[in-house]
């Protein structure tokens, strides 16, 4: 709790580090006294697990709404990836207790469509999320830009992965690695699907897109029985052993997350959502209870 030397509670909620302090008219059991008899206030906040679950939930909402497989606002690969990146960047320095995540994610999709030259109309967002949100998206865009530090440049693992597969195809012709067109198509599809599943995690914030792409290629190669030709391809690409070893060390750190994502590949998006729904509902209940924006 936090104490006040005046012995009185503040007349309005005060936020510090995104935590809501209850108003004086809330439950009496919120107010206790410390061993000196000074009133203290119990703070309502989200746990780290709640925040992780909420980020995951709203990440799924972005993919479900404007992803390349969406039935609502279908856009290219980079729109969903950029919108996810914007939302994660924003919440690195801002609290969900101060900003409605639903408004944030809609504004991120709206902005991502502009940045990626694959425009999402405001009317499309209102059709999916409701008419009342149209005004909030426009009003919030300035705050979103400020929260992003006006840095709109993003990089995603898709292009590095597709480049690796194209390189594998070329080396396969030169070195006779024994891969068929069907093999290359399977690794291409498996890698893209794996990257889709990695985007709503913290992996893209922690590692370079090219390293993620390499980890995805290696994990998919194991699953598809293509380890030997892929390793031959990589040894051909990285002639210096020290450079190759250094890169592989980082890739080793990423592989567990990639392997975990691959476990969800056989499931449909709806199945993935249902498997996490109870966790998300619990986290949402905590958010609504503690959020400041819910009182406005």
Shape: elongated
Helix content: 55-70%
The spatial strand order of the largest sheet comes to 1-3-2
Uncertain regions spanning at least 5 consecutive residues: 1-33
SSE order, as H and E?
EEEHHHHHHHHHHHH
| Number of alpha- plus pi-helical segments | 12
**Mean of residue pLDDT?**
81
Largest sheet: 3 strands, antiparallel
The count of DSSP E runs of length 2 or more, i.e. the number of strands, is 3
Distance between the terminal alpha carbons, to the nearest Å? 25 Å
Could you tell me the radius of gyration in angstroms? 23 Å
Beta-strand residue percentage: under 5%
List the helices and strands and how they pair.
Elements: E1 2-3, E2 31-33, E3 39-41, H1 48-66, H2 77-93, H3 101-115, H4 122-129, H5 133-147, H6 158-175, H7 181-198, H8 203-206, H9 209-224, H10 227-237, H11 241-262, H12 269-290
Antiparallel strand pairs: 1-3, 2-3
Helix pairs in contact: 1-2, 1-3, 1-12, 2-3, 3-5, 6-7, 6-9, 6-10, 7-9, 7-11, 9-11
Describe what this molecule looks like in 3D.
The relative contact order is 0.12. Helix 6 packs antiparallel against helix 7. A hairpin with a 5-residue loop joins strand 2 and strand 3. Helices cover 62% and strands 3% of the residues. The chain contains 12 helices and 3 strands; from the N terminus they run βββαααααααααααα. The longest helix has 22 residues. Strands 1-3-2 form a 3-stranded antiparallel β-sheet, with no helix packed on it. The chain has 296 residues and is mainly α.
């Amino acid at each position: 709790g936090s104490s006040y030397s005046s012995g009185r509670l503040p007349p309005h909620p005060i936020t510090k580090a995104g935590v809501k302090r209850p108003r004086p008219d809330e439950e009496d059991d919120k107010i206790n006294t410390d061993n000196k008899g000074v009133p203290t206030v119990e703070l309502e906040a989200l746990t780290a697990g709640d925040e992780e679950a909420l980020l995951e939930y709203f990440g799924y909402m972005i993919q479900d709404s404007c992803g390349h497989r969406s039935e609502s606002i279908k856009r290219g690969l980079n729109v969903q990836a950029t919108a996810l990146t914007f939302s994660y960047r924003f919440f690195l320095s801002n609290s969900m207790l101060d900003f409605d995540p639903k408004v944030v994610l809609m504004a991120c999709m709206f902005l991502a469509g502009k940045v990626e030259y694959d425009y999402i109309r405001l009317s499309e967002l209102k059709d999916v999320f409701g008419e009342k949100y149209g005004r909030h998206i426009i009003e919030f865009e300035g705050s979103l830009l400020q929260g992003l530090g006006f840095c709109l440049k993003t990089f995603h693992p898709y292009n590095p992965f597709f480049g690796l597969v194209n390189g594998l195809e070329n080396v396969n012709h030169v070195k006779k690695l024994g891969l068929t067109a069907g093999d290359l198509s399977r690794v291409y599809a498996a890698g893209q699907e794996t990257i889709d599943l990695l985007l709503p995690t913290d992996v893209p914030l922690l590692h370079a897109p090219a390293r993620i792409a390499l980890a995805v290629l290696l994990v998919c190669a194991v699953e598809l029985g293509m380890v030997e030709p892929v390793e031959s391809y990589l040894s051909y690409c990285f002639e210096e052993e020290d450079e190759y070893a250094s890169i592989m060390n980082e890739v080793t750190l990423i592989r567990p997350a990639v392997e975990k994502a691959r476990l969800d590949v056989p499931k449909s998006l709806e199945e993935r959502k249902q498997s996490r729904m109870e966790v998300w509902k619990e986290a949402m209940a905590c958010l609504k209870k503690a959020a400041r924006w819910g009182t406005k």
